[in-house]
Amino acid sequence: MSSSIHFPVNDPNFYAGDPYPTYKRLRENDPVHWNTDEEIWCLTKLGDVQDVSKDPSRFRSGDGVLLNDKYREVAPGESILSTDPPDHRQLRKLVHRAFSRKRIAAMEGRIRSLVVELLAPVEAGQEVDFVEAVSLPLPILVIAELMGIPSEDRERFAVWSDAVIGAAEGQTPEIMGKVIELLGYLREIVEQRRKQPGDDLVSVVLETRVNGERLSEPELLVFCMALLVAGNETTRTLLSNGMHALAENPDQVALLVGDQSLVAQAVEEMLRYDAPIQSFTRTTSESVTIRGQVIEAGQRVLLLYGAANRDADEFGVTSEEFRISRKPGQHVAFGWGEHYCLGASLARLEGEVALQEIFRRFGEVQSAGPIERQPGTLVRGVKKLPLVFS
Ligand code: HEM
């Protein structure tokens, strides 16, 4: 069914504004919305997004998972994100091993020292751009550390990984040039680790076998790229959106400062309230029916995580409010089911350590100017977040 609700699904500025009133209208009036401009079904109810994510045989990822994949060639198996079972299970096992609970937990001390270092120049009463000071550098430093990237290369690494995210919006020659540079650099890293293995992720993956075989060089490069892209701007956005929400809700800051055991819950609420990734897509392999609406085989479906995370059927009448004392419900900021985010525990750990260290030093945070958002259809990103801590 096509409704009169105006949802400019492919307008990057729509997500940089306030998409939530439109999401609410869609959830309440047209939860299986046919978007005529993009020819895509848009799902906004939490249960629907979860059901589709659990059903990879009828809702495939292999034809691409980005809204804009329609406009680019998606090579099969291009990344773990756009791979379907049974191959997907094999790849997932591999990444799972590389991201074992033990390996992530072992990162805590290092993440804490990075956060403390980044916070050191931040002074009480002085305006700081939180994106530049903390949320941009932290995830890059953490992933670079995990992959064993030398510290002198980390700035270039940051520019390249931004370019790869930019490629989701459109592939300009400049962006593609950067992506090629990054691939060349990763090739060097892989070669070097082949000769001199360490205990970094790249070395672990080099040693791992899938179906008894080692990964080929292209597979390895794609794997490294996927890690880099998946964990970088997403975690940056979690930190920025989360601090923005806290700055807008001083009562919630007071709650957190008064009871640091709420830190883990606060991170869940940050993820739920303003989902870093707004959506991914699927393509149907057969005709399916959702809420009485028939979706033909081969049609595209948009899973709107940002909308589903405000569903009042799951989160109650306060679903549009930021409340860190909320019992963590089943939000879909990390997706659900088959492709559930493999970096979720790392992102959570970064969020928790950042909150602990910030509120160990400061008791209040306030906005020092308007937030500047980064237009985009995939990530509800932040360019600048002026804050004052005291
Ligand atoms: C707050 C930060 C993050 C958010 C919001 C996020 C979000 C997501 C979402 C929504 C998916 C599901 C994709 C789908 O269903 O098609 C996903 C998958 C994935 N994420 Fe994350 N992610 C975050 C951080 C990370 C980090 C830190 C890493 C690794 C360093 C990572 C690695 C991955 C990988 C490898 C997948 C693919 C899993 C698969 O296809 O089976 N993510 N992420």
Count of structural domains: 1
How many helical elements?
17
Oligomer: single chain
Give the termini distance in whole angstroms: 51 Å
Share of helical residues = 40-55%
Beta-strand content estimate = 5-15%
* Backbone structural class: alpha+beta
Low-pLDDT parts are none
Radius of gyration: 21 Å
Give the number of DSSP strands.
14
User: What is the name of the CATH architecture?
Assistant: Orthogonal Bundle
Approximate shape: globular
Strand order of the largest sheet: 1-2-10-7-3
- The CATH homologous superfamily: Cytochrome P450
Q: Can you tell me the CATH topology?
A: Cytochrome p450
Bound molecules: protoporphyrin IX containing FE
Task: Please give the largest β-sheet.
Answer: 5 strands, mixed
Describe this structure in words.
Helices cover 49% and strands 12% of the residues. It has 390 residues and is α+β, with helices and mostly antiparallel strands. The protein has a single domain, classed as Cytochrome P450 (Cytochrome p450, Orthogonal Bundle). The strands form five sheets. A five-stranded mixed β-sheet has the order 1-2-10-7-3. A three-stranded antiparallel β-sheet has the order 4-14-11. The model has no long low-confidence stretch (mean pLDDT 91). Protoporphyrin IX containing FE is lined by residues 53, 61, 65, 80-81, 92, 95, 143, 226-227, 230-231, 234-235, 238, 276-277, 280, 305, 333-335, 339, 341-343, 346-347. Residues 53, 61, 65, 80-81, 92, 95, 143, 226-227, 230-231, 234-235, 238, 276-277, 280, 305, 333-335, 339, 341-343, 346-347 line the site of protoporphyrin IX containing FE.
